[in-house]
Amino acid sequence: MALGDGYSINSDPEEDCEETDLLLNNDMEPAVKEAAAPQLCSARYSLALLMFFGFAVVYGLRVNLSVAMVAMVNDTESHQSLNRSTGHECPAHSDNRNSSKKTDGPDGSPRYPWSPETQGMLLGAFFFGYLVTQIPGGYLAGRFGGRIFLGGGVLGTAALTLLTPLAAQLGVSWLFALRALEGFGEGVTFPAMMAMWARWAPPLERSRLMTISGAGASFGAFVAFPVTGVICESLGWPAVFYICGGAGCLWAVFWFVLVSDDPRTHPRISEPEKNYIINSIGSQGSAHGWSIPLVSMMFSVPLWAIIICQMCSNWSYYTLLTSLPTYMDTVLHFDLQQNSFLSALPYLGAWLFSVLSGVAADHLLEREVMSVTAVRKIFTLAGLVLPAAFLVAVGYTRCSSALAVTCLTLSTTIGGASAAGVFINQIDIAPRYAGFLLGITNTFGTIPGVLSPIAVGYLAKDVSIHNFLVLRFKSDLEVIT
After folding, report:
1. Which of 171, 143, 144, 169 is nearest to 290 (CA)?
2. Single pTM value for the model
3. CB burial of residue 303 (10 Å; 0-12, 13-18, 19+)
4. How far is CA 366 from CA 98, 205, 275, in A?
5. Could you tell me where the Basic and acidic residues compositional bias lies (predicted)?
6. Are 467 and 460 within 8 A, CB to CB?
7. Measured between alpha carbons, how far is residue 338 from residues 59, 227, 228, 322, 357 in Å?
């Protein structure tokens, strides 16, 4: 098998057949057991840590508009349609409503008369672009390596984020197009991560390494919500996009300087660690060729199971990610700082729980307590059914802010368990095509990201948000169970 740039260029037909069998049968067990190389200061855990901060930046770039929207939108205009059904459901924490047209706020930042429908469209715009690059990004990352695509995706999104205040000033259409382009750039990041771990993660450390890196998303949301609120109140909402964009550009510099696509080409990796990774992964870590077993994938029951589970999980997750600050503002009537801090709590829990789930999953595999398939199913089930039940409960909390926030926090926290289940399952069933498979599953999983904020924006006109949440989360529970 010829090697180039640290990974295989031409795949072995027999190995392709083995991976096709995995796609069809889902018979997933670690192939080779090697004596583990030290974890402390290792190249693979350094990569996981850098990915962690990268995805923290990625989610900061993704959610900053959700909180900033509260400061960007003229309050009275936004609430005129909501007040018909939601304005008197719960007592207001404060009543500082003002003008009904575009005005400058106290910090001099402009305010815009965007209706709930317009806000929903703007919050969903990101996912229109995000849909487009998932599959191409996964394919190219699997073919050529994920370093350039992950780093380039973050850098491009960060650079575009710097233009957000200008786009908002130019008009809704410009801002919609800009957010869609940001999604276009960010769409390659998760498939590229999966393609990189196919070359870097020993089978018995996959859960840990991938949940550490992926947990950056929850950590990023946890940090971005309160920090965005503080920045909006102290520096004005435009500063949010300048600071987040600058952070993304700075991270990209470290990424391109420190990261290699493959352990074989890493200049600072120790020889024992390199041998451990290469021998543990074997030929599974090689790049795929130009051809892809699309027919086998199309009829793969495990792959369709991952797609369905990811769509169900993401529907609730993206609804909260994009609309939770609006819910806190229009229904529970928290001010901007309270809103941003309380919106962050669920993601603190998800961050911690996802990392712990990864450690627990690898522990079960190392001790051979159960198979890879059983571990993934258990963590997926826990991460879908229990959160759905807590989300249903939110609709019945009436105006109890404490109960609502508690249920939302528990739901998102327990949902972190699926990070050790369905969200890393692609690398188990076909490591060589892991990036491409994640592109497929994430494409379907992004559809809720497009639809949910738009649905919230339109439904909020005619029904109470409490009633909408009950209907929304009941349907989630029915689909999952």
Report:
1. 143
2. 0.78
3. buried
4. 60, 9, 19
5. 86-105
6. no
7. 20, 12, 12, 17, 30
d(CA 7, CA 44): 16
If phi > 0 it is left, if psi is from -120 to 50 it is alpha, else beta; for residue 334 that is beta
For the record, the structure tokens of 224 come out as 């971005």
Q: Does residue 47 lie within any of the structural domains?
A: yes
Instruction: Tell me whether residue 151 is in a domain.
Output: yes
Q: Are 231 and 70 in contact (CB under 8 A)?
A: no
Residue 9 within a domain: no
Nearest to 449 by CA among 316, 344, 328: 316
Q: Tell me how crowded residue 17 is: count the other CB atoms within 10 A of its CB.
A: 12
Q: What are phi and psi of 3, to 5 degrees?
A: -115, 140
Token pair 């369709």 in the structure block, residue? 304
SS (H, E, C) 116-158: HHHHHHHHHHHHHHHHHHHHHHHHHHHHHCCHHHHHHHHHHHH
Residues with Cβ within 8 Å of 244's Cβ and at least 6 positions away in sequence, in order, are: 57, 60, 61, 64, 158, 161, 224
> Distances from the Cα of 312 to the Cαs of 58, 62, 427, in angstroms?
22, 20, 20
Contact (Cβ atoms closer than 8 angstroms) between residue 382 and residue 416: no
In one-letter notation, the amino acid at residue 326 is T
Six-digit token pair at 106?
């106290």
Burial status of residue 290 (CB atoms within 10 A of its CB: 0-12, 13-18, 19 or more): exposed
Look at the chain and report how many structural domains it folds into.
Answer: 1
Residue 213 lies in a domain: yes
The residues that bridge with 7 in the sheet, in sequence order, are 4
CA dihedral 246, 251, 254, 256 (to 10 degrees): -100
Q: Which tens digit of pLDDT belongs to each residue from 209-257?
A: 999 998 899 899 889 888 888 898 889 999 999 999 999 999 999 999 9
Residue identified by tokens 């948000």 is 465
Each residue's pLDDT tens digit, 174-219:
999 999 999 999 999 999 998 899 889 888 888 899 999 988 998 9
β-bridge pairing 3-4 and 7-8: antiparallel
Which letter does DSSP use for residue 35 in this model? P
Q: For position 196, which CATH number holds?
A: 1.20.1250.20
Quote the tokens at residue 124: 């969903």
